[in-house]
Amino acid sequence: EAGVAQSPRYKIIEKRQSVAFWCNPISGHATLYWYQQILGQGPKLLIQFQNNGVVDDSQLPKDRFSAERLKGVDSTLKIQPAKLEDSAVYLCASSRDYEQFFGPGTRLTVL
Amino acid sequence: AQSVTQPDIHITVSEGASLELRCNYSYGATPYLFWYVQSPGQGLQLLLKYFSGDTLVQGIKGFEAEFKRSQSSFNLRKPSVHWSDAAEYFCAVGTSGGYQKVTFGTGTKLQVIP
Prior knowledge:
Chain A is mainly beta. Chain A has strands at about 5, 10-15, 20-25, 30-35, 45-50, 55, 65-70, 75-80, 90-95, 100, 105-110. Chain B has strands at about 5, 10-15, 20, 25, 30-40, 45-50, 55-60, 65-70, 75-80, 85-95, 100-105, 110-114.
């Protein structure tokens, strides 16, 4: 089966600009996660979807980050406006039976 | 809330030597435990997982881990390390029941010297 797809793989923007990341999970996986991984740290959960609904967004900076999952499949994560500290790898994962499968990530650099 | 501690930030081993990476967790119920490996520029790949049953878990690439409830530990082991094992390793704990929330440790970077 195809894995989790993410795009773009790399993005460089200036602070105060906006950016969007896209994720296509494994077919049939109801749960989708977005993680932020800052260099030298473990992944930190930003938001978790179960089908279309959000089940955990407690660590999502809602003043600048937003995410949606249309029709319970693809998802987009947006940052507007970006700050220097948003430079990180953004990982998308989907899961079935409590096992997560990760995409390759999007490396964001904010200048 | 659950948490994971990986006390070793960086470990260096010689190729062919044995390896043990430490992981301690905190969670009030029986946890789901995972080890992931991340090579530079790559996403995370699952090495092995523990949900229940036998406390010694076998994974891919010759790795194994042992769940010790009394010590709240889930250490990763490999009897003979290969140069290709150089990567960063993350331990994670997942909640059981309902919507699973997974919390990751800060990772251990493994360097393998010839």
